[in-house]
Amino acid sequence: MEFDEIQIVILVSSFVLFTILVVAVLLFTIFQKKKTDFLMREKEQEKRFEKILTESQIEIRENALKNIAWELHDNVGQLLALARLELNILQPNVKDGNAPKVQEISQLIGDSIQDIRSLSKTLNPEVINNMGLVQAIESDINRFNRLKFLDASIKVEGETYDLPEKDIVILFRILQEFFNNTVKHSKATTLKVEVTYTSSKVYICAKDNGKGYDENLIKKGSGLINMKSRADLIKTTFKQTSNSKGTKIELVYTNKEIK
Amino acid sequence: MRLNFGDISNLFLVITAVIAWFSYTKYKSTPLKYLPIYLTYAAILENVANILLTVAQSNTWWYNIGINIEILFFLHLYYNYIKNKKNKKFLLICAIIYEVYFLINVFILESWNDYQVFPFTVGGIFIIIFVFAFLLEMFQSSKILHTQKYLIFWISLGVLFYNIIPLPLFVTRSILSNYELSQMMVIQYLANIIMYLLFIYGFIWSSMKYK
Questions:
Q1: What residue in B sits closest to A18 (Cα-Cα)?
Q2: Predicted confidence band at A193 (pLDDT cuts at 50, 70, 90)?
Q3: According to the model, what pLDDT value does residue B2 have?
Q4: Most buried in the list A2, A8, A65, B60, measured by CB within 10 Å?
Q5: Mutation for A interface: B132, B143, B145, most A CBs within 10 A
Q6: What residue spans define the domains of chain B?
């Protein structure tokens, strides 16, 4: 096969164009890999920053709650206890007609002291850690029943075991957020909590029989985002569903001690 | 029977069309959904062209229609993919200019029996410009993270190779219309084969997730 000058020019220029294209593709591949690595690193950094931010927000909140719990227990609680003591001292001198009234007031103060103590318990992260997850939930549930907010119950299955302290507080705070929503907004009459322990996982399901909410409208609500981001922090799957028959949250916590 | 480059290129075209149909679910909801129809059409075009050459001794008019549709198909494809409004408008104007030029050439300046190499060269250059415009858009978006997963990326590479490599051949044919260049068609066939290989790679390795 013989080629004249024009044909050689065509062949050479086609080959040059081909080479340029191949080199461009190769250069692009290298550039793209570098850019991808850079973007991935940036994303990773952003995630880390968000994690630190959530962690510090939780820490600040927990500290604030701890201070409130102390104030309630040591200050308000003590003042009420003192008031009750004074009232009891005063009681023998009260005229007969007023005695039942004073007795009633003393009883009311007693109930308030008990409520404040149990509230301060569930607010204080140290107390929650000491009580453990199930007992902390029970304490909140007893409070709801005592205050006759609704008919609350808890069912525990499997053999319970200790979870890391930080994780207990986060799980409990998620549930508390749900309980608060139930009491404040749902108009529910019952609240059921089920905790199931297996060797590798802890399943928690809480549901009420309230009016529910429109998932499309409330999906972006801060309470829900808070619950989700907290669950993410301890690598727990979080699911909330709602319809006109009630609202339910499901948490699946993986026991990190099991490898 | 000895296979020449033209036959090998046709064989690759048929294989590409078959693979395109088999992987159709991956891209049926994208503007690429017409691609297997185009590839099947191209396979028919080539084979009918061969038959016409044997039976009627001329297939130029058939190629003129076929390549014209092919150019319009790719311009239409990138019109759907390009998001920048200015580029879209520019593409539309270029497509109209090309088609008007093609029709003037066929009906007024020359005839159906003359191979419309000059309009096709212009059409090819337009396609190259808009493939680059699209790739530039793609690289400026978050798609850059997973470029290789997008079928359109491989299709664009194939189209670039197909249109750029034989460009010197087409330009020479446009300028020196009476010059014997049939030997050089091997460049076109090689460009075709590279394009089909890139298409096949895209059909097999692209992901349904990235549209």
A1: B165
A2: very high
A3: 60
A4: A65
A5: B145
A6: 5-205
Kindly state whether A9 is in contact with chain B, defined as any CB-CB distance less than 8 angstroms. yes
Strand, coil or helix: what is A251? Answer: strand
Instruction: Show residues of chain B in contact with A25, CB under 8 Å.
Output: 157
Q: Is the pLDDT of residue A73 over 80?
A: yes
What's the CATH number for A133-259?
3.30.565.10
- Provide the pLDDT for residue A196: 94
Taking an 8 Å Cβ-Cβ cutoff, which residues of chain B contact chain A? 139, 144-145, 147, 157, 160-161, 164-169, 172, 176, 179, 181, 183-184, 187
Q: Residue A152 above 60 pLDDT?
A: yes
Is residue A195 over pLDDT 90? yes
Q: Which chain B positions have a beta carbon within 8 Å of A7's beta carbon?
A: 181, 183-184
Q: What is the domain partition of chain A in residue ranges?
A: 1-123, 133-259
CA–CA gap between residue A163 and residue A259 (Å, rounded): 15
Rounded Cα gap, residues B59 and B180, in angstroms: 18
Residues A35-61: pLDDT tens digits? 888 888 998 999 899 888 888 888 888
Q: What is the mean pLDDT of chain A?
A: 86
